[in-house]
Specification:
The protein has about 110 residues and is of the alpha/beta class. The protein contains four helices and three strands.
């Protein structure tokens, strides 16, 4: 995946993700649904529009992909309603990440850094 991922930032909670998104611009967020302190759905809602966390304006519209074992059609609808753009099922394989990224980014306006 090194040919499509130039740089990656890992955090351990939704709260930490929101703090980082308030300081640095990103092209994409892979968001685990079952994070501690703040789950993925609530984190996505805060990324899209939050009065509590100061997310950079440029990060409020980036693609968000749910990473989860909860990938039923009903779950996927909940992720979309929360502002997410796609879903990758666990266990995650490099191929599933690659396919989801290419499918999402070909339909999303994207300006490389």
């Amino acid at each position: 995946m090194g040919d499509i991922v130039k740089d990656m930032t890992l955090v351990k909670s939704g709260v930490k993700a929101l703090e980082v998104l308030g300081r640095h611009s990103f092209d994409l967020v892979l968001l685990d649904i079952d994070m501690p302190l703040l789950n993925g759905i609530d984190t996505a809602k805060h990324i899209r529009h939050s009065n509590t966390f100061d997310v950079l304006l440029s990060n409020q519209t980036i693609p968000i992909i749910a990473v989860t074992t909860n990938d039923s059609p009903e779950d996927k609808i909940a992720y979309i309603k929360a502002g997410m753009n796609g879903c990758i099922s666990k266990p995650v394989s490099p191929l599933s990440v690659r396919q989801t990224l290419f499918r999402l980014l070909e339909h999303t306006p994207h300006t490389p850094l």
